[in-house]
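Example for tutorial group B:
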């Protein structure tokens, strides 16, 4: 494929801290190498509305430390329709954009692949590069996506604060974190926080088992010496039981099991971190990750490489037919987008070796969390 000369950049789906670092790096590196870099606002929605902004190195000065995305993001369900994608391709052709960097999650990268489907493109030239950005870390074939590290740090910081009050009052807290289909954030932050239990959808536990597990954990830890009785449980939002219902069921079981106990002393407290987990200044690691992925993504387009996602230290062996190590950065791989999306689908269904390893490794750890 020929080298792209006018390269659009968009951010799509849920925002993730570190997206700006990727925008900045693509702009600076692309401009330095003779390409024109163009920002597209609000993801595919902005593309359809021809919402174009200039991106010169001056335009991206100072954005490295900002959370969110300077380009804005949106969901655009109409993009599933062929005629809507035709309109988007017409906007790109009209603007002379022949390369596109899409920064986003599973859905955004699927949209990119369909936008650049050779059959749908007809004769139009459009090269695409995907950059994984999603705090959930639910994309396959990359070790990490942009935003995961900052989100984990935010959870750890919040739980450290919660742990202070939990310790002072010998209380049990259930902390709900983002993660609809993928429990990575709950698992990783539980280890980093020193939580006593993590609940994540991949474990596939029925409601009653989850309730019993929490009750057993609380009863075990209640017998410890003071200053060591607090219980922190991290629950991914994707675990099917709603948090209020979970609290009600656990509290009822605890009242049954410890008759005579002061209810306010044993009842659980709930904290839902919600969108707090998405926000904030990117960590040093996410700034570095975004910068490096942005650099590799734009260089791929400049080298005539298309239909790839830039992966960060993939956690599995990659066959040469689907991936090459980036000549620009030995920590990054250029992986075939079709393979990425197939692996992502399997990861979310718990079918990949990585998904099995994550859940298995965690279940082995579970007992240790109570020590
Ligand atoms: P997050 O991980 O934060 O959910 P995401 O990129 O997976 O990010 P989605 O809402 O799934 O977020 O997708 C973002 C956008 O990508 C959608 O609003 C839509 O415009 C486009 N998109 C998603 N799936 C497809 C698809 N199958 N075909 C075409 N476009 C799609």
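The residue assignment follows.
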């Amino acid at each position: 494929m020929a080298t792209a000369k006018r390269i659009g950049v968009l951010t799509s789906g849920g925002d993730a801290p570190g997206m700006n670092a990727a925008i900045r790096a693509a702009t600076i590196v692309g401009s330095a190498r003779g390409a024109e870099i163009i920002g597209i606002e609000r993801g595919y929605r902005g593309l359809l509305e021809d919402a174009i902004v200039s991106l010169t190195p001056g335009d991206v000065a100072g954005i490295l430390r900002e959370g969110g995305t300077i380009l804005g993001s949106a969901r655009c369900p109409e993009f599933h329709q062929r005629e809507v994608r035709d309109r988007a391709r017409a906007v790109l052709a009209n603007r002379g954009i022949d390369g596109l960097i899409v920064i986003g999650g599973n859905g955004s990268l699927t949209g990119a692949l369909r936008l650049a489907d050779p059959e749908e493109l007809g004769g139009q030239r459009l090269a695409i590069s995907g950059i994984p950005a999603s705090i959930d870390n639910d994309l396959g074939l990359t070790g990490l996506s942009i935003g995961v590290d900052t989100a984990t740090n935010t959870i750890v910081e919040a739980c450290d604060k919660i742990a202070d009050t939990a310790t002072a009052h010998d209380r049990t807290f259930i902390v709900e974190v983002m993660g609809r289909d993928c429990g990575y954030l709950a698992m990783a932050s539980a280890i980093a926080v020193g939580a006593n239990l993590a609940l994540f959808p991949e474990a596939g536990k029925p409601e009653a088992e989850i309730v019993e597990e929490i009750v057993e954990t609380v009863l075990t830890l209640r017998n410890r010496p003071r200053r060591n009785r607090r219980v922190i449980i991290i629950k991914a939002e994707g675990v099917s039981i709603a948090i209020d219902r979970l609290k009600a069921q656990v509290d009822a079981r605890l009242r049954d099991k410890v008759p005579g106990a002061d209810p306010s002393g044993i009842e659980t407290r709930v904290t839902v971190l919600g969108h707090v987990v998405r926000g904030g200044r990117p960590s040093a690691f996410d700034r570095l990750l975004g910068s490096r992925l942005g650099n590799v993504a734009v260089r791929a387009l400049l080298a005539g490489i298309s239909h790839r996602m830039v992966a960060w230290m993939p956690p599995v062996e990659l066959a040469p037919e689907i991936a090459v190590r980036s000549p620009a950065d030995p920590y990054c791989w250029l992986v075939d987008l079709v393979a990425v999306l197939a692996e992502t689908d399997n990861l979310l269904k718990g079918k990949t070796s990585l998904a099995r390893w994550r859940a298995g490794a965690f279940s082995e750890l579970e007992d240790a969390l109570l020590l």
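The pocket of adenosine-5'-triphosphate is lined by residues 12-14, 44, 75-77, 79-80, 104-108, 110-111, 114, 134, 136 (CB under 6 Å). Compare this with the pattern of hydrophobic and polar residues in the output above.
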